[in-house]
Amino acid sequence: MTDSENRIEVQSLSLSYGNTAVLKSLSLPIARGKITVLAGPNGCGKSTLLRAIRRLHKPESGRILLEELDIAKFNDRALARQIGLLAQSPSAPEDMTVEELVRLGRYPHQSMLQPWSQNDSTALEAAMEGTGVAHLRSRRLGSLSGGQLQRVWIAMVLAQETDVVCLDEPVNHLDMAHQLDCLDLVRRLNVDYGRTIVLVLHDLNLAARYADRLVFLNDGVIAASGTPEELMTEAMIASVFGVQSMVITDPVHGRPLCIPLRTGPAHNKGDADAARS
């Protein structure tokens, strides 16, 4: 391990789908042991960046460093022992049990000579206990609620025992209670296990509540990066998302809270002023 404060460095990364440029010479440091949230309009490159960090997309130019080493130089299993990814809306057979799915997280640590070890069993149990799904181990995936299933997927990633955990919209399709439950779990992974978390979220208020570092993407580039307090301003939200808003301080958590007013450019400052009065 190096002394660098950044766990990952994305350097001048460009990536296209066919003739469509998705990431455009994008550079981004990702701080060690922090929660970095990627946010921005649909199609801005958030999920693509996350998948590129896990080397699921090959860049046209630029590179991604993990502990100052180019991830292109890692073999597949070695990289999977360093970076875990939970993709958006993952799927698995409904008749698979919870334990069977969580066990898949141990694949990068196994070999032909030792397909399962005591270390694997210890990691499996720790992951299920840590996510609160141990009591569901024999349940079929098809019998679980949305919130339970998302916890099982996170348990699988946790069982992988990676220092970096990438989560693409982990609260997608969950109700409010399960969204908070899921993100509280993610924060515990960060605080209790010291994981570096890279998280894609659409909900700006959830992003502001849980992020140590907030990154706004727009049209394949970094529009802004900083603390939630630095980025969650009415001018920035209008510029990146095309939404007029009023930003106040959450009276409970002390984080910025965005109240959308209308879409379109901020022609009339009186909209926000009227909302305040």
TrEMBL record:
InterPro entries listed in its UniProt record: AAA+_ATPase (IPR003593), ABC_transporter-like_ATP-bd (IPR003439), ABC_transporter-like_CS (IPR017871), P-loop_NTPase (IPR027417), Siderophore_ABC-ATPase (IPR051535)
GO BP annotations, alphabetical order: iron ion transport
UniProt keyword list: ATP-binding, Cell membrane, Ion transport, Iron, Iron transport, Membrane, Nucleotide-binding, Transport
Location of the protein in the cell: Cell membrane
Molecular function via GO: ATP binding; ATP hydrolysis activity
UniProt keyword Repressor, yes or no: no
Membrane topology annotation: Peripheral membrane protein
GO cellular component: plasma membrane
Domain ABC transporter: residue ranges: 8-244
Keyword Iron on entry: yes
Family: Belongs to the ABC transporter superfamily.
Protein name per the record: ABC transporter
